[in-house]
Design goal:
The protein is 36% helix and 20% strand. The protein is of the alpha/beta class and 341 residues long. Strands 1, 4, 5, 6, 7, 8, 9, 10 and 17 form a nine-stranded mixed sheet that branches.
Length: 341
């Protein structure tokens, strides 16, 4: 697949937060306008039937009316709601979009494929999708493309061709997370030991890439990185892995997304143990654990930009004003610590 890097920047986040633990300052992209929308999102799972209500806004002279679906890996993490917020904002600005957000009940290729098929059958002109795996939903994506549907990836791309991908450079972000943890370990006077790594599923491409970058950061050190334990939509898997790690004197833990980060933090908090935790994403639950000092640092992504700019580009592609294919935009990360809050 041909890839070229482009940058669609609504505005640069000022001195609110600063990156650390990396050789270059990550670029933080934020939308021009606050996330205020008159559009009503339709949130459904594969076990439900979307409401038939028209949720679009129509402005005078806006041209053709388009139907756009956002399909995420599930409907649980607040991170996906942030992407939805960005989509809502762009849909409100554009004024000629009927927009719906749907997703499966769990991380599962077959369930997400069913969501894609549902969107196509309901007349979707464009689909914004956080793909559950690199190849598992490609057959449904091909059917969507064959029907004339434009495909835009947000957060996590499949290997099927697209208009564009808006996501974090997850390898670079994972490397930043690793460098941040090394800084924390050095500050604590820890120069060796085992580090636990908690992932989502073995097929979640964005989290696998973060793990790759994280492991790269520790090359040449005296630390041992344990085999990854996957949550598989069950927080008990993380809780049990943390308990095992504590019993084996692990010095730190890394969570590759919001769910794993919260589960690690809660497990450490409940155990009363002390450990250095670096995680991903900035839900209220994650930020509360950072504020308490349970999580040392978390990587803040920019999901609202993914949704906002993804929606905008999808409509531009439908109208013929965006003609590139398979482009990639890194929407950036920054590091949030207790001191930076």
């Amino acid at each position: 697949m041909r890839r070229k890097t482009t940058l669609f920047c609504s505005a640069v986040l000022g001195a609110m937060l600063c990156g650390c633990g990396t050789n270059t300052t990550p670029e933080i992209i934020m939308p021009d306008q606050p996330m205020v929308s008159s559009v009503t999102t339709q949130q459904t799972s594969t076990t439900q039937t979307p409401a038939a209500a028209d949720t679009s806004t129509q402005s005078a002279g806006s041209g053709s009316q388009y139907t756009v679906y956002l399909i995420t890996m599930d409907l649980t993490d607040s991170y996906w709601k942030s992407i939805d917020d960005g989509c809502l904002s762009a849909a409100s600005e554009l004024g000629n979009v009927t927009y719906k957000w749907i997703g499966p009940d769990a991380h599962d290729d077959a369930l997400q494929s069913a969501c894609i098929d549902e969107a196509v059958s309901n007349g979707a002109n464009a689909i914004l999708i956080a793909a559950n795996s690199a190849d598992g939903v490609n057959a449904s994506l091909q059917k969507a493309a064959d029907s004339g549907c434009k495909i835009v990836y947000v957060d996590s791309a499949a290997s099927y061709d697209c208009v564009t991908t808006l996501s974090t450079d997850n390898v670079a972000a994972g490397r930043t997370a690793g460098e941040t943890m090394i800084t924390a370990l050095n500050e604590a006077g820890i120069s060796n030991g085992t580090i636990g790594i908690l992932g989502v599923t073995a097929d979640t491409a964005s989290c696998v890439a973060r793990e790759t970058g994280f492991r790269q950061a520790f090359e040449g050190t005296d630390f041992i990185l344990a085999d990854t334990v996957f949550m598989q939509d069950n927080a008990d898997n993380v809780t049990n892995a943390v308990a095992d790690g504590i019993a084996q004197n692990y010095v730190a833990f890394f969570g590759t997304n919001e769910g794993t980060s919260v589960a690690i933090g809660n497990a450490i908090k409940e155990s009363g143990a002390e450990s250095i935790i670096v995680g991903f994403d900035t839900s209220d639950a994650v930020l509360a654990l950072v504020s308490e000092g349970i999580i040392y640092a978390t990587m803040q992504q920019n999901p609202t930009v993914m949704g906002h700019d993804g929606m905008t580009i999808a409509i531009q592609a439908l109208e013929g004003t965006y003609t590139d294919t398979n482009t990639t935009t890194d929407t950036g990360v920054t590091v949030i610590t207790q001191d930076a809050m």
